[in-house]
Design brief:
alpha/beta, FAD/NAD(P)-binding domain, D-Amino Acid Oxidase, Chain A, domain 2, 2 domains, 7-stranded mixed beta sheet, 5-stranded parallel beta sheet, 13 helices, 20 strands, 33% helix, globular
């Protein structure tokens, strides 16, 4: 089976590795950029996706370049603790939660694709510019940076090309650009002293703004951690004084104007920003849920299928799970179209609910509620919430995203095992 993947980000590379692990050898990944590189900074991989990476043999290498997240702690701007919960191994999962820079994750996945499928399995500098889907034929037209074109006939084409997906645009030409909720995110990383447990994710917020901080790397010799930070607030909140350029100094001033009087636990925000060399600014965008991902032998994975707001650590996580579920179904169905529909039937309803949950800021909704109920802060969170109410918000979101402990630890593996049946004189596949 010839399989073509459009996009060499986390979703596309994870799909290529998963397909090879499921027995597919003719897999090619096309990337529009001239080289594989990662845009963005830190991210979290939840245990349901870490399990998949472990079963692909990548966990040991990734752990050397990541921090095992120990806890999630949420605060109001005054530093009052609203909710905390254990994460990863500490919470009883069989696999950790990993906080990592996007760059090493992409590097590890790309190296594994080339190791398994060969150096030619990733074609860079080639953009999808046309797609033809007809009964019995799927063709992608790719244009190189020099203007040359190449038509690729394939048995399966997978759109893994992100929130601005060319494959999705070909399937839904009237959709237009991704919508924004009016929030702008400022992001950066800087080395600093460990805070809280040293492996904590801290989220502070009110009803409009969020400040997220967590370590993504360690320098054991220096006793420092690389802190990933995200500051998000509504665009237009301070239009007259918004930065007129992407200069780091001007953006630091903007962030401090919004968050300078906040009290992140164990951190000096001003020092953290001063130590941040590069600051990046993005609008917060997502995609509306789709009624359909699969057209014949074309389907979507990752952000191309279900881009969502960055709440709850589910972007990269769900892309990895998509990859494994898709490979599992392709290995288990003799007809590629049936396999893609089975993959969509399993994943799309769940991702639709998760997209909707993230538009309400997922588990961070407790911060908004805390501000609405006690805008001046509180001495005891039990005066604002019952413990059961907070726990239910967290538990419900985990179940929506299928990363609750019971499910992750006990569900059947998505690894495809090859078995030989001499009477059939061929190899067949079983998913266990």
């Amino acid at each position: 089976m010839r399989i073509t993947i459009v996009g060499a980000g986390i979703a596309g590379l994870a799909t290529a590795v998963s397909l090879h692990a499921a027995g597919f050898e003719d897999v090619t990944v096309f990337e529009a950029d001239s080289r594989i590189r990662s845009l963005g900074l830190g991210l979290n991989i939840l245990p349901n996706a870490v399990r998949e990476l472990a079963e692909l043999g990548l966990l040991e290498e990734l752990q050397q370049r990541a921090v095992r997240t120990r806890e999630l702690a949420m605060y109001n701007p005054h530093g009052d603790l609203v909710w905390r919960e254990d994460r990863g191994l500490v919470a009883g999962y069989r696999w950790p939660q990993l906080s990592i820079s996007r760059s090493p994750l992409v590097e590890v996945l790309a190296a594994e694709v080339r190791r398994r499928l060969g150096a030619g399995a990733v074609v860079t500098g080639t953009r999808l510019t046309g797609l033809r889907v007809e009964p019995g034929t799927t063709c992608g037209v790719f244009t190189g940076r020099d203007g040359s074109t190449r038509t690729v006939e394939t048995d399966v084409l997978i759109g893994a090309d992100g929130v601005h997906s060319a494959v999705r645009a070909a399937l839904y030409p009237e959709e237009g650009p991704p919508p924004t909720n009016g929030v702008t995110m400022y992001r950066g990383t800087a080395w600093g002293d460990p805070f809280l447990t040293g492996s904590s994710m801290a989220v502070l917020g009110d009803d409009r703004r969020r400040l997220v901080l967590y370590p993504i790397d360690r320098d054991e010799a220096a006793g420092k951690v690389l802190i990933n930070w995200v500051a998000a607030f509504p665009e237009g909140e301070d239009d007259r004084r918004r930065p007129s350029s992407d200069g780091a100094a001007e953006m630091r001033t903007t962030v401090l104007r919004q968050f300078g009087d906040w009290a992140p636990p164990g951190l000096d925000l001003t020092c953290l920003l001063d130590d941040t060399r590069d600051i990046h600014r993005y609008p917060m965008i997502d995609r509306d849920p789709l009624p359909r991902w699969t057209f014949g032998t074309v389907t979507l994975v990752g952000d191309a299928a279900h881009a969502m707001y960055p709440a709850g650590s589910n972007g990269a996580t769900q892309a990895v799970v998509d990859a494994r579920v898709l490979a599992w179904h392709l290995a288990g169905h003799p007809d590629a179209g049936d396999a893609l529909r089975a993959y969509e039937n399993e994943r799309r309803p769940q991702m639709t609910e998760l997209q909707k949950a993230n538009r309400s800021m997922g588990p961070e909704r407790v911060i908004t509620l805390a501000h609405e109920r006690a805008p001046r802060g509180f001495d005891d969170v039990r005066d604002v919430f019952s413990e059961e109410e907070l726990a239910e918000i967290s538990r419900g979101y985990a179940q929506t995203g299928k990363f609750d402990q019971d499910w992750v630890n006990s569900r059947p593996s998505l690894t495809v095992h090859r078995r030989h049946e001499p009477d059939m004189r061929r190899e067949t596949w079983s998913a266990q």
